[in-house]
């Protein structure tokens, strides 16, 4: 047994026996000391099954050990990297001690008697240990210098590292990891990672080389949680390298059509091959190509497309062009542009979209009226001029010119023009918009007309005429008669001068035909044809007979059966009319027209009606455009990329007679048959997208579409019936899964024009999660998967966020490798080897060790987490209990949840332990004289620690109240003994005792100190010493010393003494042998001061004396400042308390009075009239006789009696005098009135005079005179004769005025 002190400077306290008492020599610094623990010895480390164990020898009395590991041997707080508390004699670090490089560390151990730091002994001398650097992952994939051709995904894989809680992946295009081009991905769990987006790369044969490294991140041994202030391990010595590229060959689309100039493109649609990994395409159509870069320049049309088909929405004018397509990945990075390809756009007269360039001539309208021979022109009467031509496919309108062939230089006639949607024109001189429904006709205007009569077409004129077609872009908003907008197409003129005279047309005009009657007649034969065959034309041709005397005709058009809803009135010189505008389609009812002959003035502004000329009856027709149809075409074509292309037969085939058209209107309806809008397009195709300028993909689903031709005004005609189609992006294909530990990398072949991909993973049998993993690579990594079987699906999103069809994989399995236990079942673990061992598991980062005293509670037991494959149990376990244990391998992810991701779990094993005995307590400590008996109970059951009976060590020492102690003495006690008696102890001395049990496993902690003292004189005096006084006695009482202060021996009596003032002490002999805590002192003087002393006695001697000063009691002195204040038959009495209460509190006061006979002046006897409480210092006396003299005195009372009376004070009560009586008034002479009265009774007061008052009305009074006290009359000499007066008298005194007397009246003489 090694005994140590808390301070080296503490010198031994010498215990010297002097006369049977103990004398202590106080140390320089007083301190309470106990049996402290030495530093552990023989620190060492060893490697067992790959795990480093720190070991040391046990310390007797220690229940706990504290280990510290630091980077220096001074163990500065900032340099300590790990601490651990354990009950075992070894420690296997649960977290890494390594850093980014190998290093030497220092460690030390201290023993503690309990878990409290206050019981800790000194630390051992530092021991040194070499520690390797933290482990570094091995890079697995990409393989060194691997090459990835986009869109092949890049996924990173590395080997697991024991103890890692996460990994940090870094990749960069800079071998120096320069900022701006370096990506750091922290907190990765598992050994896979797939970036969500494609990595940096360039195209056109300029690949990017990337570098990568992985560092394991470990839990900090000092941190409470595994993720607080983690430790990052070193990176690989050589970084990984790989190359990512998107080559020109793989990124450039191949253009399919149009290709070359050998075929003329009249209607445009562009198609190309899909590019793997492309999210969208950009198309550029221009007029030249940069020779250096191969990029199309002078761009006229650009567009974005998610499909591999592109149809321009606007017109492209004729010419040779180049087109080029560039693919873009989901991140917006472009691939190599395709090779620019030339094509020729020209307006052909064919109905098909294309035609051969061989012998191609740009189209023009072919006239069907007129002679090709100027010398032999076609004659036509003025009223029958009607220029006609064949329709041209794709034409919106036609422009006509009639050119006069001038006969002389003076002939200044100009060309007459007309723009029309029809394929013929006639002369229109004036137009008046309808009064009711003018909007039913639009685009009409004067035709072949000039406001000057000399410029108009007239008899005798020779004309050449020509026509050309104009094609507005489908979405153009320019009106029919406005200047042709830029970007429109114009055909050749029909008479282009290329030497071919057959294209010219001539006619000569003769006079108008003579009239056939006074009113016109409709050409019914012509109208029968027009009204039935021209239903889709912009306007019908109206014919009638000439009217005698008429030079013009008025034609009115209506929009109802009654010919009352006015649309337009048009004036012409001819007997027919071809309106050059476009009538609205009629959905119900008919159009009606009427005509009559008129005589128009030359200005064509006014007219008269020839006699008998009337409007014809109504002629009717219906206007309804011919629907587009799908004859000979496939309306819906779905490409491999999922895009849908609509096709229909061109209007030139489906409705060749319907006149000019601006293109087509396309509308799409959803599955509820609700229109999603309408879009105007130029060509007879449309790629199914949103019907707006954004042209985004449609959401997956069922739809239908309809198409209508646009008339020359841009208004849609009748739509086709709905054609159903389905939008469904193709599903990704070729799904593969790579599993490593708890991570799985999922890969697939992407779809064309996918903006990103969505992935879902679920355990087989569970529901699909609502959360979707979204990536733009064709692979992703899912991590932290628990063991089990999983399935997954993937789909793509287009640029609008719409999903494609889903592709579902087969299943994959996360294996659950099971740790194999090495510690044999039933093993008995000693304090020197309290270690559980198991075999390592591939892919495991750490292990969870659980142990419990019942197999059923094992799964809920707190898990200890370690990177090692063995674990030193740090807690105290019970001897005699069978423990169950299991170990679970876990991956990197940190969690405290019971549902955390795990690998395999071992089978359940068993073990038991042997321990040092549990701490033994001193059950009883008995002091008898100078002997002490210490008793205890032998530990039983688990507290025994092992099967062997423990031996004991009993330590004791003497101490005093100042902290001075003697050295501990330690006695060895054999097993089985449960008490020990110590003899020969010093008297009046406190002894401290501690007990320890030990066996082969070690010693228990020392018990708590129990102390007891050998007997001595009382150590403390009596307390609560008090005295209760009377006038002749003092009853003295006290509280005896407690049993802890009686010196260890019972109190046997008290030494009681007293004295008066400074007189001699008087001893109360009887008290020395009485244990009563009170005594009464008698025969004392009243109001005298006494000093009293009391000291406790035991068989050893007297204790400290306690003293008390007390006094006997007396009666109170007289109250002070007694006063009496008179009142009306009363007096108010007051006083102050006496100057001395005599030693006993005043309990109240008594008041006495006496009266003086006014005749004999003798006083009556004192009579008690009032008593009050101690706090009441006033009273009042009532029922006194006014005018009588009284005396009052006061005395204080206490419990001892009535004190001295005060001196008497006099008081004479008084009131106001009584009203005078016998008042009379008499007119004794002229103007004189005499008032008389009898004197008032004084009522104890002193009368000072009388006030004589008068009134002229008996109610309002004035004082006439105030007399002396002796007066009984008054004469007034200023009265008015014959006037009545009232008089009364008031007595006045020192107390106040009396009431007024009765009033009397008299009339003055």
Number of domains: 11
Gross geometry: flat
For the largest beta-sheet, the strand count, sense and barrel status come to:
6 strands, mixed
Provide mean pLDDT, rounded.
89
The radius of gyration is 66 Å
Provide a descriptive summary of the structure in words.
The protein is flat. It has 11 domains: 16-31 and 917-1013, Immunoglobulins (Immunoglobulin-like), CATH 2.60.40; 44-131, Immunoglobulin-like; 139-215 and 224-251, Immunoglobulin-like; 252-362, Immunoglobulin-like; 378-621, no CATH class; 626-728, Immunoglobulin-like (Sandwich); 729-815, Immunoglobulin-like (Sandwich); 827-913, Immunoglobulin-like (Sandwich), CATH 2.60.40; and more. The N and C termini lie far apart (144 Å). The protein has 3 helices and 97 strands. The strands form 26 sheets. Strands 12, 14, 15, 17, 18 and 19 form a 6-stranded mixed beta sheet that branches. The model is unreliable at 1-34 (pLDDT under 50). Helix content is 1%, strand content 42%. With 1309 residues, the chain is an all-beta fold. GO terms for molecular function: hydrolase activity, acting on glycosyl bonds. Pfam families: fn3. This is Fibronectin type-III domain-containing protein.
């Amino acid at each position: 047994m090694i005994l140590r002190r808390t301070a080296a400077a503490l010198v031994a306290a010498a215990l010297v026996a002097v006369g049977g008492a103990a004398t202590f020599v106080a140390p320089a610094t007083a301190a309470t000391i106990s049996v402290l623990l030495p530093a552990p010895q023989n620190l060492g480390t060893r490697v067992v099954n790959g795990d480093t164990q720190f070991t040391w020898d046990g310390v007797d009395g220690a229940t706990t050990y504290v280990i510290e590991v630091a980077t220096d041997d001074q163990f500065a707080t900032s340099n300590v990297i790990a601490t651990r508390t354990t009950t075992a004699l070894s420690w296997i670090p649960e977290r890494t001690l390594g850093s980014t490089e190998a290093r030497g560390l220092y460690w030390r151990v201290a023993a503690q008697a309990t878990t409290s730091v206050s019981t800790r002994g000194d630390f051992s001398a530092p021991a040194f240990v070499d520690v390797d650097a933290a482990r570094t992952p091995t890079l697995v994939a990409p393989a060194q210098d691997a090459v990835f051709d986009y869109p092949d995904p890049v996924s990173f894989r590395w080997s697991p590292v024991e103890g890692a809680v996460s990994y940090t992946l870094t990749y960069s295009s800079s071998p120096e990891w320069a900022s701006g081009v370096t990506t750091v991905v922290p907190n990765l769990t598992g050994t896979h990672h797939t970036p969500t987006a494609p990595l940096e790369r360039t195209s056109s044969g300029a690949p990017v080389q990337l570098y990568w490294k992985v560092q394991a991140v470990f839990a900090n041994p000092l941190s409470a949680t595994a993720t607080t202030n983690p430790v990052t391990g070193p990176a690989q010595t050589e970084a990984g390298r790989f190359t990512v590229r998107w080559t020109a060959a793989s990124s450039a689309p191949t253009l399919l059509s149009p290709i070359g100039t050998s075929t003329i493109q009249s209607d445009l649609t562009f198609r190309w091959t899909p590019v793997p990994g492309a999210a969208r395409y950009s198309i550029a159509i221009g007029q030249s190509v940069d020779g250096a870069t191969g990029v199309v320049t002078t761009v006229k049309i650009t567009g974005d497309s998610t499909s591999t088909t592109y149809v321009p929405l606007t017109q492209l004018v004729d010419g040779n062009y180049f087109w080029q397509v560039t693919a873009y990945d989901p991140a917006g990075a472009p691939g190599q542009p395709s090779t620019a390809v030339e094509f020729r756009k020209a307006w052909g007269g064919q109905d098909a979209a294309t035609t051969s360039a061989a012998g191609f001539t740009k189209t023009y309208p072919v006239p069907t009226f007129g002679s090709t021979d100027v010398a032999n022109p076609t004659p036509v009467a003025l009223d029958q001029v009607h220029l006609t031509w064949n329709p041209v496919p794709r034409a919106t309108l036609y422009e006509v010119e009639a050119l006069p062939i001038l006969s002389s230089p003076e002939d200044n006639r100009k060309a007459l023009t007309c723009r029309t949607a029809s394929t013929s024109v006639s002369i229109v001189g004036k137009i008046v918009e309808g009064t009711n429904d003018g909007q039913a006709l639009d685009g009409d205007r004067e035709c072949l007309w000039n406001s000057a009569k000399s410029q108009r077409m007239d008899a005798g004129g020779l004309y050449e005429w020509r026509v050309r077609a104009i094609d507005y872009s489908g979405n153009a908003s320019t009106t029919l008669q406005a200047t042709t907008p830029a970007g429109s197409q114009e055909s050749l003129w029909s008479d282009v001068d290329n030497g071919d005279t057959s294209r010219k047309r001539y006619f000569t005009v003769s006079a108008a035909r003579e009239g056939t009657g006074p009113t016109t007649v409709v050409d019914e034969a012509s109208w029968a044809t027009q009204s039935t065959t021209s239903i889709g034309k912009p306007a019908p041709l109206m014919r009638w007979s000439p009217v005698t005397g008429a030079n013009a005709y008025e034609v009115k058009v209506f929009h109802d059966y009654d010919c009352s809803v006015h649309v337009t009135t048009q004036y012409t010189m001819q007997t027919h009319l071809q309106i050059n505008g476009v009538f609205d389609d009629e959905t119900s009812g008919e159009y009606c027209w009427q005509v009559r002959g008129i005589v128009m003035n030359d200005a064509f502004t006014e007219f008269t009606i020839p006699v008998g000329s009337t409007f014809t009856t109504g002629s009717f027709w219906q206007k309804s455009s011919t629907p587009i149809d799908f004859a000979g075409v496939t309306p819906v074509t779905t490409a491999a990329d999922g895009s849908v292309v609509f096709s229909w037969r061109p209007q030139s085939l489906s409705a060749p007679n319907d006149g000019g058209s601006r293109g087509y209107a396309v509308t799409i309806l959803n599955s509820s048959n609700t229109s999603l809008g309408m879009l105007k397009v130029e060509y007879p195709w449309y790629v199914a997208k949103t019907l707006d300028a954004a042209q985004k993909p449609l959401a997956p689903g069922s739809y239908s579409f309809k198409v209508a031709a646009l008339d020359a005004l841009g208004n849609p005609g009748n739509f086709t019936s709905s054609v159903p189609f389905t939008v469904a992006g193709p599903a990704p294909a070729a799904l593969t899964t790579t599993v490593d530990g708890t991570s799985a990398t999922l890969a697939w072949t992407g779809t064309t024009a996918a903006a990103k991909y969505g992935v879902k993973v679920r355990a087989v049998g569970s529901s699909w999660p609502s959360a979707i993993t979204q990536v733009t690579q064709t692979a992703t990594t899912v991590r932290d998967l628990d063991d089990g079987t999983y399935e997954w699906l993937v789909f793509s999103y287009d640029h609008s966020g719409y999903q494609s069809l889903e592709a579902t994989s087969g299943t994959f399995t996360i294996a659950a490798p099971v740790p194999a236990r090495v510690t044999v079942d039933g093993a008995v673990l000693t304090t020197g080897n309290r270690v559980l061992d198991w075999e390592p598991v591939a892919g495991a980062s750490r292990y969870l060790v659980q142990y419990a005293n019942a197999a059923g509670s094992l799964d809920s037991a707190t898990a200890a987490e370690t990177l090692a494959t063995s674990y030193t149990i740090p807690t105290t376990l019970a001897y005699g209990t069978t423990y169950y244990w299991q170990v679970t391998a876990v991956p990197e992810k940190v969690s405290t949840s019971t549902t955390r991701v795990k690998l395999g779990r071992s089978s359940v094993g068993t073990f038991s332990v042997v321990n040092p005995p549990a701490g033994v307590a001193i059950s009883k400590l008995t002091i008898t004289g100078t002997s002490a008996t210490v008793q205890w109970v032998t530990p039983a059951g688990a507290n025994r620690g092992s099967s062997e009976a423990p031996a004991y060590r009993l330590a004791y020492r003497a101490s005093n109240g100042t902290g001075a102690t003697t050295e501990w003495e330690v006695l060895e006690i054999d097993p089985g003994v449960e008490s020990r008696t110590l003899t020969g102890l010093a008297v009046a001395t406190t002894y401290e005792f501690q007990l320890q049990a030990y066996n082969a496993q070690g010693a228990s902690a020392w018990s708590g100190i129990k102390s007891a003292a050998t007997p001595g004189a009382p150590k403390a005096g009596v307390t609560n010493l008090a005295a209760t006084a009377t006038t002749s006695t003092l009853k003295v009482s006290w509280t005896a010393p407690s049993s802890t202060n009686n010196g260890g021996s019972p109190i046997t009596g008290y030494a009681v003494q007293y004295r008066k003032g400074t007189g001699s002490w008087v001893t109360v002999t009887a008290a020395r042998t009485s244990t009563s805590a009170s005594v009464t002192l008698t025969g004392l003087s009243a109001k005298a001061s006494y000093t009293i002393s009391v000291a406790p006695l035991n068989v050893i001697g007297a204790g400290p004396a306690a003293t008390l000063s007390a006094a006997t009691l007396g009666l109170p002195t007289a109250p002070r400042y007694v006063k009496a204040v008179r009142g009306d038959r009363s007096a108010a009495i007051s006083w102050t308390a006496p100057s001395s209460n005599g030693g006993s509190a005043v309990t109240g006061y008594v008041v006495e009075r006496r009266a003086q006979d006014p005749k004999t002046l003798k006083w009556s006897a004192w009579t008690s009239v009032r008593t009050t409480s101690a706090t009441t210092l006033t009273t009042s006396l009532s029922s006194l006789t006014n005018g009588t003299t009284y005396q009052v005195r006061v005395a204080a009372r206490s419990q001892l009696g009535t004190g001295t009376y005060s001196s008497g004070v006099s008081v004479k009560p008084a009131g106001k005098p009584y009203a005078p009586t016998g008042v009379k008034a008499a007119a004794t002479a002229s103007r004189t009135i005499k008032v008389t009265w009898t004197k008032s009774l004084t009522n104890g007061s002193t009368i000072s005079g009388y006030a004589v008052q008068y009134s002229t009305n008996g109610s309002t009074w004035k004082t006439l005179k105030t007399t002396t006290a002796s007066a009984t009359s008054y004469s007034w000499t200023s009265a008015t004769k014959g006037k009545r007066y009232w008089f009364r008298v008031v007595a006045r005194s020192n107390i106040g005025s009396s009431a007024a007397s009765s009033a009397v009246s008299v009339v003055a003489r």
